[in-house]
Design brief:
37% of the residues lie in helices and 28% in strands. A hairpin with a 2-residue loop joins strand 2 and strand 3. Helix 7 packs across helix 9. The longest helix is centred in the C-terminal third of the chain and has 20 residues.
């Protein structure tokens, strides 16, 4: 029996399911020998090697802003993902991959070629807003209009979907990774401390917040003074980093307004009735639903288990797609 493999090939994380079962969820990193022939590690292990390897080894993030930035590394990563399903010498697997809406034909071809080179029988691409909406439980085949805002690591996909299609959309190439960068800059400017990407990302995940609270959460970070030599330790509160995160989410909120403004009145009426659905890893930032409602003026709610919405949508669609 031919296997159906789903791949959520995100900028920050890659998730793989086989016949509806999630089998792999790791950061989108790959460590290879510099001839790019030998894969040394993938995911968390590869990420942990970043900045600590010899000249003979490269640690690569093959995706940038939702698209392939290093084709050879992406091909190796997809090949690894497909290998997780086990080999079948007779039947190559079908592969369904989520991609941002509005990819150019060149970008789409790069993803398809990566899958075919990696050993797929057939590769089909599903727009990320559709897969996220399905994974969030929205009846996308109905004549009703729904708004999904899927905020991953590299892109934020803002879309109105109806009757199984993306009606209006906008892709903002800012999301979780950009927030991490803003936190690093914020700490440098406000506290005169340099922290690494991993520390800033941990701060975002542990205490990322958009609404001030009377009892903030604190998280300890370690870094170096701006002189580059003196180690420092700081306790940062969840209220402190609101100023680093809110400008990024404000940009996404403005794009939400733009998509709504160019939508037909009937669709806007449906969106007001159904609310805005938030998915993706960035939807895990505390208070983001309240912030979005206050910014846009329409009720917003977070999808159940938002980081897995896309892979759930792919898994729910794969049999129909390849039938």
């Amino acid at each position: 029996m031919r296997k159906n493999i789903c791949i959520d090939l995100g900028t920050a994380n890659v998730l793989v399911s086989v016949n509806g079962e999630l089998i792999f969820e790791e950061p989108t990193y790959i460590a290879m020998s510099n001839d790019k022939r030998t894969v040394l590690s993938v995911g968390k292990e590869a990420k942990s090697m970043s900045g600590k390897v010899s000249k003979e080894i490269s640690v690569v993030r093959p995706m940038k802003n939702g698209v392939i930035s290093d084709f050879k590394a992406a091909r190796k990563l997809v090949e690894y993902c497909i290998s997780l399903a086990g080999k079948n010498n007779w039947l190559k697997p079908n592969v369904l991959i989520s991609v941002p809406a509005g990819l150019t034909s060149v970008e789409e071809r790069a993803v398809i070629e990566a899958g075919m080179y990696a050993g797929a029988s057939k590769v089909i691409l599903l727009p990320e807003p559709i897969s996220a909406a399905i994974g969030a439980g929205l009846p996308v085949l109905s004549a009703k209009g729904f708004m999904i805002v899927n905020m991953g690591g590299g892109t934020s996909e803002i879309a109105v979907v109806s009757v199984g299609s993306v009606i209006n959309f906008k892709s903002e190439r800012i999301a979780g990774d950009f927030i991490t960068e803003k936190i690093m800059t914020f700490l440098k400017q406000q506290y005169e401390i340099n922290v690494g990407e991993a520390s800033a990302e941990e701060l975002k995940i542990q205490i990322g917040n958009l609404v001030p609270t009377a009892e903030p959460i604190f998280h300890e970070i370690r870094g170096k003074d701006l002189d580059g030599f003196t180690p420092r330790t700081l306790n940062i509160s969840s209220n402190d980093i609101i100023d680093a995160i809110s400008p990024v989410i404000s940009v996404i909120a403005r794009s939400v307004k733009e998509v709504i403004e160019k939508s037909q009145s009937e669709l806007v009426s449906d969106i007001i009735e159904n609310g805005i659905v938030l998915s993706g890893g960035t939807a895990g930032i505390k208070g983001i639903d309240i912030f979005m409602h206050d910014s846009v003026g329409i009720y917003a709610h977070i999808a159940e288990d938002p980081i897995h919405a896309v892979i759930r949508g792919l898994s729910a669609s794969v049999e129909k797609v390849f039938s």
